[in-house]
Amino acid sequence: MDSRPLLADAPRPVREAVAGLLGGRVTREEPATAGFTPSIASLVTGGDGRRLFVKAAPGGEGPAVPLAGAAGDLGPRLIAARTVGDWSIEAFEVVGGDTVAHWTGDDLDHLRRVVERMRDRMDPSPIGCTTPYAEAFVPLMADWRVLGAAKPPPITVPVERLAELADRWLDVLAPGTALHHGDLRRDNVIREPGGRLWIVDWTHLWTAPGWMDLIRLLPDLAADGHDPELFLKSTCWHDTPADHIDVALAGLASRAWRDCHLPGPYRLRRMQQEQAHHLLTWLDSRLSRG
Fold this sequence. Notes:
With 290 residues, the protein is α+β, with helices and mostly antiparallel strands. The protein has 11 helices and 11 strands. It is globular. A hairpin with a 5-residue loop joins strand 9 and strand 10. The termini are far apart. The strands form 3 sheets. It has a 5-stranded antiparallel beta sheet. The protein has a 3-stranded antiparallel beta sheet with strand order 6-9-10, with helices on one face. This is Phosphotransferase enzyme family protein.
């Protein structure tokens, strides 16, 4: 996806529902430039200047209400959620700031606080009706024994070692009890002018070990020159079993390394290539140290 669909092109009942939430017709729409899902995500403004951030997509009612309640002030406040036909609509309070484009040194202390707040609030999950993230991710994983032969990764450790680690994915991750965001990257973080970070796009009713969201995020930090190992050791998850982290990295990297070689939208494949590089580089460094 290289451009977002617009609310202006959505079915009329959807546009009317948003106008009702806004208190009048939409006079301006600014689609989000970050993100990779093909759904409406727009900042909309009404005639009186009121603004809302609106997400809308076909697919029926989603879990926005319980997730927003669980996230609390980790994310923007949910104003309303509506179902119109087979469309779901979510309207959020607008947070001043911008989506993170690059992680700076000034972000790291703010990020540590977010990680600690997520641990305190999400582990164990404050809501029910969840399923293990590990199970949902299994169909997306690649078999390193096949993938490594077709597309050898740029690492020094044997591909068989990656395969052995990935084989333990469910055993290590499925028992986790924390509510899991599952897509924690810069495009799902808003930075206020004062530095505060907000986590957006809480979408899934998943559980995982509490440290898993951080492990998903760290290759994104590495892409801006930050050492993932040093940052991990500076957080509340510094004592996570090392081999559990290796299992997570091997599993995540299997998908990223496969998918970045497939045809597809340029921005998405470039992001996956970057993720694969930093996942594999970090894992190779960890395994090479023994």
